[in-house]
Design a protein that fits this description.
Layout: H1 2-18, H2 20-23, E1 25-36, E2 41-45, E3 51-55, E4 68-74, E5 83-91, E6 96-97, H3 99-107, E7 111-114, H4 118-124, E8 131-132, H5 135-138, E9 151-154, H6 159-170, E10 176-179, E11 183-186, E12 189-193
Parallel strand pairs: 3-5, 6-10, 7-8, 7-9, 9-10
Antiparallel strand pairs: 1-2, 1-4, 2-3, 4-5, 11-12
């Protein structure tokens, strides 16, 4: 009886160890080099230089080149080429916040600073309650801002806001972050953040 039990434990352990889901599931972190929504694929380059092409099986949504992501993927035994991504999680850099975090901070009364240029604000609109300070004027406008306020910087898609965040951080603003997402306006009103 003991031998049968021991054998069953060993066999079940081997089945778990060599099942496709566990044996070939892995994770990779890196920067998205390119995306093709048509074919639902993207190329990821890790910090070590490893490059992999993933098929996400659905629209890649708000992901874009240069986004840092963590990918959980599976690869069939001996498979080469495109690999199936099961989950893709966007990684936010220092100071970056997701659309969900942004909504919570905004609801809690954070100060919003729009660092887009005048043309963008005039043609697209601005978030209700936001203060418009173009990026090239932000440093000279620091006196009009309070370093003690919870502050969020945003632009059209994140990179310019990240520069604004750095300017504020380097000038003693402790409770500051930036929206690392695309912002869409329609008829002068905020339409979507993703």
């Amino acid at each position: 009886m003991y031998r049968r039990f021991a054998l069953a434990v060993v066999v079940s352990g081997l089945l778990v160890q060599f099942s496709p889901a566990s044996a070939f599931a892995a994770q990779m972190e890196g920067k998205i080099a390119y995306i093709t929504n048509k074919f639902k694929t993207f190329q990821l380059e890790s910090k070590s230089g490893q490059v992999e092409i993933f098929n996400f099986g659905k629209d890649t949504g708000s992901l874009k080149p240069n986004d840092m992501v963590r990918v959980t993927y599976t690869r069939g035994k001996g498979a080469k080429g495109i690999v199936k991504a099961t989950t893709v999680t966007k990684l936010y850099g220092d100071g970056g916040v997701s659309p969900e975090q942004f909504a919570q901070l905004r609801k809690a009364g954070a100060i919003l600073i729009d660092v887009r240029n005048d043309r963008d604000v005039k043609s697209k609109g601005i978030m209700t309650g936001a203060k418009h300070i173009p990026l090239d004027q932000l440093e000279s406008s620091l006196g009009s801002l309070s370093k003690s306020d919870k502050t969020i910087v945003y632009c059209n898609s994140g990179p310019i806001a990240a520069i604004g965040y750095t300017i504020l951080k380097n000038n003693g603003f402790e409770d500051v972050s930036y929206l690392e997402a695309r912002v869409y306006f329609k008829d002068g009103q905020l339409f979507l953040i993703k």
